[in-house]
Structures are given as C-alpha cells and as structure tokens.
Amino acid sequence: LAMSDMPSVSVDKDAQWEKLIAKAACIRDICRPYQHGADMLAAISQVLNECTKPDQASPAAIVLQGLRALCEAEVVCIRSTWNALSPKLSCDRRPLILKALNELFSLVPSLTVNTKEFEDTLVAISAYKSLSSFGSEEHTILHLPEKARPGGDSLEEIDMNEDEEDQEANLFVPGSSYIKLLSLTPAAVLEAFEEFATSLVKQEMTNMPRAVYHTALRGGTTRSDQGKTVAGVPNFLLKMYERNKQPGMTPGLAAGMLLCFDLPVHMGKDGKPINRFLASRGRNFQQMLVALIHEVNIQPSEWHHSILLPQSWLGFMSRTYSAVLQGRQAELEMQLKHGKEDPEEVQYKQFTAWLWVRDMLTDVIKGASKDSPVVKGNSIFALTGLAVAVAKYESSLSSDTDGVPETEPDFIPMKHWISMVTETLLSIVNSRYQPKGQVFPWFYQKSYSGENTAKKVSDMPGQQMNFVLMKSLDVLESCCFDTSLEYNTGCILGVGLVLSFMSHSSQTELRVHVSTLLQKLCKYLDSSEDQSRGVQEVLAYSVACSCVSAFSVGIIEAAEAEKAMTKLRTLAENYQQTYSFALALGAIVHGLSACGHGKAEDLSNRLMPAWIKIVLAEGSPTMERLAAVSGLVALVGSERGMIQLKSESIQSSQFQSKVNEVIRILTQIISYSEQIGLQTNAARLLGRLHMSCLSSTQNRASVPPDFSYLPINSFIRAAIDFAIESGKKGPESVPAELVKVALAPIASVGESHQYPPVNWASILSPLMRLDFGDEVKHLCLELAVTQAQSSQNAAMLLGMWVAPPLIYSLSMKTQKYLFMSLSLWMQHVAEDKLQSFTEVLLIQQFEVKNLTKSPEICRCVLQGLIQAMKLPNPAQFCWSFLCQAVEKIYELLPNEVQRGELEMYIDVARCISEMADSEIDRIVQISENNIEKATFMKVYLVSQGRLPLMNLSAVIAVVAGYHQKENILWIHENTGVLKRMDWLLDLMGYIRNVAYKSTPLQNVDLKECINFLLWLFAAFVVAWADHGAPLLLGLSADWSLWKHHMVLPELSEEHTGKHSTDKFAVQETLTLLPSSLSLLLAKEPWKEQTEKFIDWLISMMECPTEALSKSSTDLLKVTLLALRSLAEFKKKAVWTKAYGW
Q1: Domain ranges of the chain
Q2: Which of 206, 261, 946, 959 could bridge to 257 as Cys pair (CB 3.0-4.6 Å)?
Q3: What span, in angstroms and rounded, lies between the C-alpha atoms of 589 and 597?
C-alpha cells in the first residue's frame, strides 16, 4: 500500500484506476479482521479525499465498507467518525456513497452508549422524582435556572424595609416559572416533570380554600373583560364621597356608594392576600354600612331610586358580608401565627367565623336603626340583604357533618335566625300579624293595611303559592287600571315589572296574558293626558320594560314594539324636562336594539349625540340636562336588570366605547358642575350604571374564563393560562408534547377533585379543534368527564363530543375511556346526547361485524354499563337508555357461548341483574333460538343469589325437549344449602311425575326426557356432595376459569359444552352418582332426608318400563345399592326391593 502511493509515470490511466480499486479493496479486507484495522484510518481518509468526482465513487464506497467494519467492531467511535466525515460527505449525492453511508448508519442503534448527555438526563429525571416528595412551599425561585425565574421582580429589588417573613414570601415560585421550566426541559425528562407537576397540583387542590369556590361564582374578583373605565368607578365615587363638603350632595353620593362600593384586596408578592389589609378592609365595610344606613335617602316621589333599593342593598350586603368574613378569618390567622391564643379555640373560632360575622353585622344594623323612619327603612333592607348573603354562603358549605363542632349555645342556629328575620318582616308588613317565633324588636311594627295578608302568606303551603300569586296579580292589575285611586303609581310599576318576568314563561296562557295586558297598558298610556304627571311617568317606564321583554321572546312583533317606542319618543320630545320620559325612552331603545331591532339601533345613534350636547351645555335648564343624563345612562344599559332580556348579545367594542363615554361625562358633571341637584343625580346614576355593567358581565360569563382569581404562585392557574395561550397560537407555535405535559397533571388530579369554577368549554374547545394530537384530546375529554359534575359548560362540551359525528374522530383509547367512565358523566349531558351515545355507539360494538374485531372494546362497554347501572337513583332517562342498551346487547350476543367470550356473557348477566325481576323475566325468555344463552344467564343469576333456585324449574321444563342436552349440563350452582335441598327434592318429585306420566310432555320421547332429567339429578348431587368429584371432572365454581387459557389455549374458540372434555364431564357425572349420593347423605341437613331419597330411587325403579332405558335402570339400581350401609336401607322392606326379592 505504501508503494502504491509512489508516483509512476509509466502506468497508464486504466492501470492507475485498477490500482486505486485494489488499494481500496485491500483497506476494506484489512479492516474486517479488526486487529490491524486502526492502522488503515489514514489510508481511508486519503482515499475519500482523492475520490470526490462522480466517476470515483467506487473506491470511496469500498473504503466506507471497511470503515463500517471498524465501527461495528467498536475499534473507532461512530460518532466521532461521522463528526470528521460529515463536512465532506453530508452533501455528497453519489448513489454508491449514499448506499455505503446508509449501511454505516444502520449500526447506530446497536452502538448506543451512555454519554454525558444521557447521564444528565438520568440525573434530571431522578431530581424531578425527588422534588415530587417535597411540599410546594419549600421550592423557591433560587432553586430555578436563571431563564425560568420571574422577569419583572429581581431579588436585588426586594424592599430592605420589609420584615424577614415578607422577604421569604417574595421567594415563592410563581406558577408561570414552572411553565418556563417546562419549555426548558428536554424531551426525555418531560415524563418526570409531569410527575413533579402532578404533585404540585395535588398539594394545591388539597389546600384549596373552600371560600374560593364561593367567591369565584359570586364575582369576588374583577373580570378581566370589565374595562378600565368601568372598573375605576367605585374608586372615583369613594374619593368624591370622602372629599365631599356639601350636605346637598351626600344623598346622591351615598346612593352611588351603595350601588358600587368596594375596596381592592392587597396582594403580597407571593400572590396571597395580606392579612392585615384584609382585616382593615372588613372594618372599612362596617363603617360604610353604618354611614349608608343613615345617609341613603328614601323618598316616595323618587320612585326610580326606590325600586332599585332592594337590589342595591342586596349587592352591598353581599360584598360587606364577604369582606368582613375575610377580615375575621385574617385576624384569626394572625392570632394563630403569633401563638397568643389556644390553637383549638382559634380553630373553633375559624369554623364559626361565618356565624360570628352574621351576628356582628346584625348588631351593627341594630345599633344604626334608632333614628328616623328613613334610617329604619334602610335597616330593613340591610337586614334582608344580610339574610340572603348568609343563606347563600351557608349553601356553599359542605353538607358533611362528621367531626363538625357544636355551635350552640354560642350562636343561634341558622334556621332559627332566618325565621326571626322572616317573622320580623311579616310583622312590619302587617301590624296585626301574630309572630310564630322571636322577632328583632328594634323596628316599628306598623302597617297601613287592614287585612292580615302576612298571616295568609306565612300559612300558605307551597303547592298553592302559584294560585295565590295569580290572584294577587289580578288585584294588582285592577288597582293599576283603576283611575279613581289616588295613589296607584306603585301598582302600575308592579304590573310593568311582573310583565317583564312573566314574558319568559313557557306557558301559553301566561304569554297570551302578557300580550293582552301590554296592549292594555299602551292604551292606558295613550289616554293618560288627564292623569297626573307622576302616573304618566310610571306608565311610560312600565311600557318600556314590558315591551322589551315581550319583544325579546317573540310575544310581540317588531312593528308593535316600534309603535311603543314612537309613543315614548313623542313624550320625551314634548316634555324635555321630565327625566322619567327620557329614562323610559333610553331603556326601550337600548333593549330593542340589543334584541336586533334595526330602527331602535338607528334611533340610539341619533339620541346619543343629541343628549350629550344638552348635558354638556352649561346654559341649558337643569331639569332638561337631568333628563338628558337619565336618558343617556338608560341608553347604555342601566335598566338591564329591570328589562329582563332573554338573551342579550355580547356587546361590541363600539358599545363599550359608548359606555366609557357616558361614564366620563358623568364623572365630569360630578367633579365640576355647579348644579348640586344635577351632581347628586349623576352620582346616583353613575353607581347604577356600574352595577348594571358588572351584572351584565357576570351574566355573559357566569363562570370565570380562567383561574386568574387564584394566587400568582398557583401551578393550576399557570397551566390553564398556558393551555389557553396554546389554543390561540396552535400546534405550529406550541409543541403538542408540552401541552400534554401541562394538562396531564390537571386531568390526573381532576379524577379525585372538583376544580374551582372556570369556563372549561372555552379553554378546552380550541385544543380539541386544533391538531394537537390524540393524547391532548384524550386529556381534554378526561377533564370534561371528571368536571362535568360541577361544571355545566364542561358537560356541554362533553355532550358535543360523545355524540356522532365528533366521537368518530376520537382515538380508540379515548372511546374506551368514555365507555368505561359512563357512570361519571351520563347524568350531566343532555338527554339526546346520551340517547345517541347508547343507541348508536354502545350497541354498534356488539354487531356481528364488530364483535369479532374488537372484543376488548366490548369488554370496556360492558364494564362501563355495569358501573353505570350500579349507581343509586340515576335519572329516569338515564336508566331507561341503559336498560334498552343492555337488552339490545343481550339480543345481539350469539346463542352458542364460546369459552373465550364467557366473560362477556357474565358481564351482560351482571348488567341484567341490576334490573327488576319482571324486566329480567321479560328479557331472558328461554326459547329454542336462544336456549344456551338464556340458560347461561338464568343459571348465572341463580348462582349469584340474584334469582331464587326455583327459576331453574322453568329452565328445565324447556330444556328437557332440547336435542343437545349435554351442552347445558356442566354448570355448577352456589346457593344456600336448605334452598338447594328443597329444590332438589322438588326436582325429584318432578322426575317421578314425568316417569309416571302425571306431568304430560309435548313431542318429547319419554325415555330421552328421563335420561336428561337423571343427568341433571346426577350433576347436582356430584356438584353438592363434595369438592373433589367436580374437580376430577374439570368443573369449577369459577365462571371465568377459561379467562387466562393456561391449560388448553386452543379451547378459547370452542363453544362451551362441545369439546370432548365437556362431554366427558357430563357422562362421568352418572358414573360418580352412587359414591357422591352416599357422601351427600352423610352430611347435615341432607342426612335427615335419606329415607326420601331411598323411597324415590325405589319408586323410579318401579316406574313403567317405557319410561326408563336400561342404562337408567342400572344407574338407579347401582345408586340405591351404594346406600346399603345406611340404617334406612337395612329395613327389610327396603333391601328386599333393592335386591329384587
């Protein structure tokens, strides 16, 4: 080889080529016995460097074969070899070279070694598994890689004035950092990270405060879609209230504060509320409660303000109760932390905090209610709002009373306290009412009514309440339209509001009544010129509210609604200084445009700028400006709560900008106007608009769109935010594997926990719709299944995916999961979805074409059905669909039972066993077409104690005429011994009656029938005598004996009873009968029946000859003689007959 490299001019080109080929071949051959192969590396490199042209591929390919041999022998490292060769060969396109490289790369799987990178992965996996055992509070941001740490707050920026405890709180790991860590984790370590994340979710759910579930639904946190302008209203009014020095503005500002007063919750850097601020916040709410009771004005002339008072006080007292309760709990936590109180006593105080706050606020209301009638009126509203708030909180508490400490006599029971509130209110309504229990004595008990209406209402049973309400409505209507009454404005308002609520009834007669009454109201408004201005004002408002509600549900047509709108527009234009007409016009225009009325929307766009111009004109009359302000506020939805729209469309950004503009105008008036009356009403209207916007947002999304109300260190919050972001970006931007790892812990822990309220449908739908893979789809549906119990939107999402056609797009694994988890979700999806799932999907698996293809799916279906049918008290529609599915599956099962499918038949029998006896008898009717299947079902149900042994008598009567009797004789029974004995004696009597022709048979040979019945008798005696004989015959009490096919796997495809071993077992029961009967009659209580057995054997031997075959006669005689050692046999009358003397 060394000589071949010397230059030679005498050699021609062909010879030089042959020399090069020979050199390459030599290198290859030397490399194969690898002892000297390492010496060839320089030569290999030289050949590859020289042979780079297309016509020089052969030598290069040959030396690569040699290099492959060296790598295979592990003389050289394939990784370092490729690192050296890749600059030259990675772009080589010569076929021979590519072929040789592919052969080289084929060695890679067999040459894997544990490199440093591999060891790093092992360390990371073990580290995550170890971290799973630690508490989440033990992790700090110092443990995280730099890239995973929170970006905004660096550790150096921690305030040096903060105490050591707050500094430690700053080191908590935010949930978003775990998601950053997820994106930095190598693919090989993701499974371990998933285990670590699961431990975080488990800890978080175990420690999840119960109050979170309540506050999330109550709207305890500001919605992200509320808007900054709307969100700033409470703080603006609070500042104006605190700075106010004008007594004339106090009632208006107080009314505004009542409608929207709230204080922010100060959060620590660990994402949790700061206890000392919570306690201070609760005290501020108490002080505001006392102030508002004294300062909110109640004037009969201000009817619009008055009808809002109950709703306003309810909202304020709900916020107050929640804030004071949080403050009380925070104070107790601080006491426990400082160690100055007994821990058990503090724990009791924490448990009873909600009752303590109830009584404390009751005392606050009591202390404030000792002045004017207006103050007492506010106190009544406050007490009623408190009762509703406390009752709602109580309903959110766990119903589990185990380990709950006794609260009496420290606190009045909730039921008694509510009764006191109710009796107090009834006493106030009517001074003649005689309370049935205690009342709060700090109110006047005075009523203007002479009738004892309160007593009537309290005594009324629930089923008659509708009748009483309708009678009350008749009275209200008659007062409304009675022009002779001096004070009927309240009745007119009442009729308008009742119509708004009644519009949403599905009863035809009520809808007709609404239409008739609305027409009557409109006519009353047309002819109201001779009525007082106050009557006209409330009439206009009532028409506006009822008209919008009726139009939204289709009771009236667009033309009729437009006619009412035109009337109110005319009134507002004719009386521009009457705020009630502008209010009614704004309300009807807003309501109709929200329902899609085109002309109302056009009018809204014209009214808005016109009213704004009037409001901002300082020279305009004050009353005209007040009317324009009232109209503006109604135009952007302040009256939503009164209108009761059936379905208000989600407002556009253009509408939100209108709301913001009106809020800015109101704040400008309150801040700078010189007209105190205008300022006062603007403050009240601003609070009203804020409450309307807030309730509208909560109605559109009754559950939060995400977990933003959880602390910032919540992994659940961060994982769901990541899922939402992934659904927006799609699989092109976010790897599906990362989404899977983020969702898997949530789904896993969801099996045993119900998460706080969130809109699961909006979170999971994008992930299901986009191509994130089957695994992510599976996790999404797993979450929907486990959360459907507590989340309506999860149940709706699930309902879409369990019905065709979407369910066909799910993987087989997910379909199996849905089958197996049927019991978890069937009561929460819509009836039609469950019907299509059971009638199409479940039954489809058992059709002949699918039964053989997917036996595993069939088993999953049956397991799911078993669990579903075991549920206590399922909904009637669920039970009906389940029973229909089981019946259809039973009909589809083949009559001949295969050993391999025996477990499937058992599962169907277990489903049938959950039904009523009458249903079982109807479904499992034995006929010649299903004799084996039905017999198996009956015998299994008897063996499990579900049916009495007497059920077998009907089976035997049918089977006696079956041509393949041996196929159904191998079953072993398991019932109480006394029942078995009585039944066997009955069977013996039946056989004797057949033999003596006392029981007639149809189209059956008598000898064959007696042979079969004696087989049955023998089978039962052998099975019940002892355990040894059945085992000798291969019989067992275990129904799933063939499940594992350990002994004879080829039997799995055999039909039961048709294998030679089955036939042998049946035949040999006759052989074992004599010895087995002796063993049976030696036991109690069978021993006492020995004489009956001997008499039966003798009577059978003496029956007519045409009834017994010779084999049956011999069997009976041998069996009788086997009993010769018994005392009963030794009687002369017996043994002489036995021996034929």
Answers
A1: 3-111, 185-222+702-801, 262-398+405-448, 471-649, 931-1141
A2: 261
A3: 9
Residues 660, 565: contact at Cβ < 8 Å? no
Among 309, 918, 304, 339, smallest CA distance to 633 is for 304
Residues 6+ apart with CB under 8 A from 796: 761, 830
Q: Is the dihedral angle over the CA atoms 53, 56, 57, 62 positive or is it negative?
A: negative
Query: In 595-652, where does DSSP find H-type helix?
Result: 598-616, 622-635, 640-643
Instruction: Give the CA angle between residues 177, 183, 186 to the nearest 5°.
Output: 125
**Residue of 868 and 847 predicted with greater confidence:** 868
Q: Which residues pair with 267 in a beta bridge?
A: 273
Q: DSSP states of 868-929 as a string?
A: HHTSSS--HHHHHHHHHHHHHHHHHS-SSPBGGGHHHHHHHHHHHHTS-HHHHHHHS---TT
pLDDT score recorded for residue 281: 93
Distance CA 45, CA 67 (A): 10
Alpha helix locations (H) across 207-302?
A: 210-218, 228-231, 233-243, 250-260, 275-295
Q: How far apart are CA 227 and CA 706, in angstroms?
A: 17
Amino acid code (one letter) for 348: Y
Q: Give the separation between CA 433 and CA 8, rounded to whole angstroms.
A: 132
pLDDT tens for residues 368-387?
877 688 888 899 999 999 99
Alpha-carbon separation of residue 164 from 168, 337, 340, 517, 582 (angstroms) = 6, 15, 20, 70, 60
Phi, psi angles (nearest 5°) of residue 403:
75, 10
Please answer whether residues 826 and 864 qualify as being in contact, where contact means their C-beta atoms are separated by less than 8 angstroms.
no
Cβ burial of 647 (10 Å; 0-12, 13-18, 19+) is exposed
CA atoms within 13 A on the CB side of 81: 25
User: Residue 257's closest CA among 216, 283, 290?
Assistant: 290
Q: Does residue 855 have a cis bond before it (omega within 30 degrees)?
A: no
Return d(Cα 709, Cα 1059) in angstroms, integer. 67
Q: Which two tokens stand for residue 552?
A: 């939204």
How many CB atoms are closer than 10 A to CB 271?
A: 16
> Is the pLDDT confidence value at 931 over 90?
no
For residue 81 the two structure tokens come to 């070899």
CATH number of 471-649: 1.25.40
pLDDT at 973: 45
Look up residue 841 and give its DSSP letter: I
What single letter denotes the amino acid at residue 508? T
CA dihedral of residues 1029, 1032, 1038, 1042 (deg, nearest 10): -160
C-alpha to C-alpha distances, 943 to 400, 499, 1038, nearest whole angstrom: 39, 64, 11
Residue 1039 DSSP symbol: T
pLDDT tens-digit readout, 104-136 = 888 888 776 655 555 567 887 888 888 878 877
Which one-letter DSSP state was computed for residue 32? S
The pTM assigned to this predicted structure is: 0.54
Q: Which residues contact 891 (CB under 8 A, 6 or more apart)?
A: none
Is the separation of the CB atoms in 1036 and 1029 below 8 Å? no
Q: DSSP state, 620?
A: S
Q: 3-state class of 755 per DSSP?
A: coil
| CA–CA distance, 1096 with 296 (Å, rounded to integer) | 99
Q: How far apart are the first and last CA of the chain?
A: 115
The dihedrals phi and psi of 898, each to the nearest 5 degrees, come to: -85, 150
Element (DSSP H or E) covering residue 511: helix 508-526
Contact (CB, 8 A) for 848 and 842 = no
Question: Alpha carbon of 810 to those of 526, 768, 785: distances in Å?
Answer: 62, 10, 15
CB distance 817 to 774 below 8 Å: no
Amino acid at 736: A
